[in-house]
Task: structure prediction
Amino acid sequence: MFPDAGPTARALLALELVRAKPGITASELAGRLEVTERAARRTVATLRGAGVPVESVRGPHGGYRLGRGLRLTPLVFTATEALGLVMAVLDGSHDAHDPAQPV
Result:
């Protein structure tokens, strides 16, 4: 991750890390986010403030994990967006951000 990433990007990455590895410690989270443990704990507090049920367990087998009730909204694409994604993957050399070259 980029060291100068903003708090939103850091929170989203932290959410993905906690979801992918239940029981991740503050130290591990800090290492993956490239921040201090204190900053990692603040990021978890930000997630909790946003309504994400992050639970923490103390002790040698403790760490952070997502609590029950978390439902992440699935990504929904229009037919045009889905086709654009497929075409961009199939055409690896195409610059998807170039409006002069529509997919």
Summary: The chain has a mean pLDDT of 82. Helices lie at 7-20, 26-33, 37-49, 79-90.
